[in-house]
Every structure is written in C-alpha cells, then in structure tokens.
Amino acid sequence: MLLHIVAIIAVLFLIAVFFYKYSSSPTDFRLIQIEWDQADTWSELRTEGQPIIIRGAPTAASPVWTAVDLEERGLTLPAPVLLGTPAASAAAHQNFVDKWVRTWLPTAFHTSPVIRAVSPVKITAASGPQYIRNATAAWTVIAPTDKPCTVSIAMPSAAEFIPTTATNQYLPALTKADTPFIGDIKYIDVKLRPGTIIAIPCHWLYSIQEQEPANNPFLIVAEFHSPISFIASRLQ
Is the dihedral of CA 42, 45, 50, 56 positive or negative? Predict the structure, then answer.
C-alpha cells in the first residue's frame, strides 16, 4: 500500500514538472512597478506572471560586489564574470554577496518560513554584459550593485524563434542573420540602477548590457526555485 502511494505521488510530481516546463506563455506584456515597502502585495502580484520592478530595495551599508569594494580589498576581477559559470557562484560566496543578500531578499520572495526552508535559492554574482538566458527558476531577481545596466526581457514565446546558434548574443542585437523570425521576437528594455531590482517570471528570456560602452555593471542574480522548478531546471 505504501509503495502504491509513493508511486502515485511520484507520478503526480513528474506531471507537475512536465506542465511547469511546458506551461503556456502569457499573451500580454506588462511591467508591474512597486516600492519595496509594498512587499505585502507580493503574494497577489506574483500570480499575474508578469515582470515586476521593485524600487527602493535595501542596499549594503558598505560596498558589496562593486569596483570600489574589490579595489579596497586588493582583488582583481576577471572580466567579465558570466552567469551560469562556476566563477559566478564563486564570486557570490567569496565577495560576501551570499551573506548580504540572504539577510533581506529571501524574506520578500519566500514569505513563508516553510517555503524558505524547502525551496532552494541560488545566488550568483556577475559583471559585464550577459548573453540571452532563460529564466528557469520560479522567479529570477536581478539587482545591479554598481553602475546602471539595461535588462532586455522577452516573453517565453520568443524562445521558439531564437536558434541555439544565437545564444551568445543579446536580445537587442538579434538580426535577420540570426533568425528569419526577428519580427516575432518582442522585447522591452528596462534600465536599472542600484536600489532598483527586477523580478522575472519563469520561462521568460533576458539579457543584460551596460548603458555606456566599457562601463561594466556589477550584478547580483538570485534564482528563487520552487521544488518543481528546481527539478524541471535540472531536466533541461
């Protein structure tokens, strides 16, 4: 009997993972803007499946993951630090980013202590422009810590028009040479400064660029997984 129950739960879980990976794309494109002190509305807003810009986010009392911070500690930054690489995870741990971010950000996105305990949060630190990426977590939060940056975001439906050969590219830089369906890729640019963060729902695409040439931004990216999104991201 116990084995039957376990098998049923496992099957239901796999079905949930499947629908998470291949869930339908939103048909409209909206940006929701709130202030940090409106965090009590988060539980309602996140059900809309739209990117959320949050202004007035906490900043560190002393520089964390900035050019000044590294210079004061006599560290040399290998530029750029790309997301999805071991260097990005190492930078978060070695430069106090993990400790700082975990004091405030998880409490806003994982409001329940139970959810915070069972749902992993992956925090990475990057610098410089970042190529097109798929937001596989339930929510991907991007926070610049030094210098402004431009985050370009596109709905999940854009993924079918972008070939794998264009992954080392930025959304605004795509041309007909990359894909003949360039007209079907709708994106929007969001300009962020330190103290303003953006939360991107699962399956949306994003890329990050500096606002001025050779003005490499420093970024913190936190991926807030649900148990299902965590499993689904590992199956990709």
Answer: negative
The pLDDT assigned to 164 comes to 73
**Structure confidence at residue 15 (pLDDT):** 41
> Which of the residues in the chain have pLDDT under 50?
4-22, 24
Q: Which residues of 184-223 are buried (b: 16+ CB within 10 A; e: fewer)?
A: ebebeebebebebbbbbbbbbbbbbbbeeeeebbbbbbbb
Residue that is written with structure tokens 């890329």 in the block: 207
pLDDT at 42: 67
CATH code (residue 167):
2.60.120.650
DSSP class per residue in 143-182: EEEES-EEEEEE-GGGGGGS-GGGSSS-GGG--TTT-TTG
Residue 168, Cβ density class (10 Å: 0-12 exposed, 13-18 middle, ≥19 buried) = exposed
Domain that includes residue 108, residue range? 2-234
In the chain, the amino acid numbered 216 is N
User: Which long-range contacts does 117-122 make (Cβ < 8 Å, 24+ apart)?
Assistant: 118/227, 119/224, 119/225, 119/226, 119/227, 119/230, 120/225, 120/230, 121/222, 121/223, 121/224, 121/225, 122/89, 122/222, 122/223, 122/225
- Cis peptide leading into 148, omega within 30 of 0? no
Residue with tokens 């729902």: 201
> pLDDT tens digit string along 139-180?
899 999 988 999 999 999 888 888 777 778 899 988 888 888
Number of domains, the chain: 1
Report the predicted TM-score, pTM, of the whole model to 2 decimal places: 0.82
